[in-house]
Give the backbone structure.
Amino acid sequence: MKQTKRQVTSKVVPFTGEFYPDTPEPTPGGNNLAAFLVMLAAALVAGLSMGAISTYQSADQVQLREMKAQSQQLEKVKNQVCR
């Protein structure tokens, strides 16, 4: 099938009479691989962030952070009492 070239035409803007070249319509690109890779990267980032959030909020991690805070408080009290 033979494709014909589109002629460049001018468009007249009403009321001013100025000529502007008609802009060609963009042809849809067939770059499906790039779109797939972007979607894959977005899914990977979303999965990693959900995993990090669930790990941070797990019961074991919450208990560990509380124990560390209590240990630091105990060290402060110990330093104040043993001076």
